[in-house]
Amino acid sequence: MSQAPTDHPSPAATHDAGGEVPSHLFRQAVEQAALAISITDARANILYANAAFARTTGYGQDEIVGHNESILSYRVTPQLVYETLWAQIQRQRPWNGLLVNKRKDGSRYLADVTITPVVNEDGLTSHYLGMQRDVTEVHRLERQVQNQKTLIESVVDSAQVAIVLLDDREHVVLDNQEYKKLIGDLGQEPVLRLLPALRTQMGSAFDQAYAKHLNIAAREVCIPISGRPDRWFSCAISWFEEQDVGADAFYEPMRRHYMLLTVQDITELKQQQEALRINSVRALLAEQERIQGLRETLAGAVYQLETPLNMLSTAIHLLERRFSPTSSPAGAGDITTSTLDEAIKKSREALETLRACIPDHAVAQQQLVSLNEILSDVLKLATSNLLVAGIVVDWIPCAQPAVVLGHSAQLANLFKQLVFNAIEAVNERRGSQRELRITCTPLSDYVEILVEDSGSGIAESLRYTVFQPFFTTKGASKQHLGLGLAMAQEVVTRHGGTIDIDPTVHIGCRVRVQLPLAKGVSHV
Asked: Residue 346 pLDDT more than 80?
């Protein structure tokens, strides 16, 4: 409260000579008060009511004096309230509460009533001082706010997405049931994991939006959970301001910012998308493998057929020399050589036709390929086979990005051949140790991928033979054409790399693939 001006009269100057406030001043103050005031006797019969009382109740002084205060009572006020009221004031203690009163015209209003007993010199209650104010509108506004709050909370709680309201210190102010479910799923306060993940994903853009209180549209974040599949969430942020309701902010408005974070669990959707993607990869690899197998089969067949034709050509030359005009009767051998020449000619035409049927390599532009992603996809493709075989997989990806320049589908087919060969080798051995280990290690200018299994292994004498077309140790009865490793070697060669079988491994097999790292790409 501000200091009173010094030129005002002192409080003592307002008193009469006896030091008491004149009684007429009390009467004027009560009469002109904005608060409805009434004075009753000990039985609550009204002796006096001021002008504000008349405005509130509709009764003039001449209409209300002599009547009991109960004239204002309305039946909806519980009897217990009146009993409590009388018990309190009869103990000569003030009572304050809310009563539903009725005016002269029958309309009702909510009165905030204070009744104070007036005690005489003998210690007895002689009168009651009643003060009341109409708080109907205040009550209506309070209930309206409460109803709106309840409605908002009901809508928020019934929402199918998690909603949480945070203050400027990122403390939770309000949340809904879906958000509470995340607490159990993530093992701690969800915002402590979601916001850092969002910051990491968006980088400086998140800090700028946060500093300027800009809304952030739905962003997908992945939350790893120990021992369980990763969870995916779509997060969106919006901001709003609240006027400070403190007394200090009455003349100097202050605002507080709140963050509204909405979180939708999209793990199932991501799993479905991943399943569709893996199925697409599986179909693409199967098609490429079919075409590659056809190419290798036809090329191998052409190669195999050319050998006897070359031998026949040599035999014809020998016959021509043997039956030369100087050493044989005229015309001897002509029929034989001409027939063979015609057969070779027809055979070579057939070979050319066969060679023309060999599918060309698809001309596709090379792109940057992450080997971690390729190997991860291959393991997903082989998951069912690995589970059926009971094989334990030890997958050690590159700690840093290992990026090569090449064709993702061809590289995926390469490692698919190696992984499925390893599964078959483990099944053939039928040992108790059933393991598959894949490591990806970036070195100076190339990346090394090791595919190791605990299968039957490959004999030292066959280390190079297994990469030849149509060679197989599995036998034709198992419908193996022996093209898998030949196709793998072709893909590696096409990408400027090398593939070999480690001769130092005597239990199982270790295939080493080395591919050049993409130049100009940071692998740190």
From this structure: no
The helix (run of H) or strand (run of E) holding residue 516 is: strand 509-516
Contact 420, 285 (CB under 8 A): no
Q: What is the DSSP letter of 73?
A: B
95-125 pLDDT, tens per residue?
Answer: 999 999 999 999 999 999 999 999 999 999 9
Burial grade of 151 (CB within 10 A; 0-12, 13-18, 19 or more): exposed
Task: Say if residue 48 is exposed, middle or buried (CB neighbours under 10 Å; 0-12, 13-18, 19+).
Answer: middle
Residue for token digits 């991943």? Answer: 274
Measured distance CA(177)–CA(251) in Å, rounded: 39
Does residue 158 surpass a pLDDT of 90? Answer: no
**Reported pTM:** 0.56
Whether pLDDT at 15 is above 50? no
DSSP H or E stretch at residue 408: helix 408-429
Tokens of 108: 């009702």
C-beta of residue 67 within 8 angstroms of C-beta of residue 45: yes
- At residue 109, φ and ψ (nearest 5 deg) are -145, 155
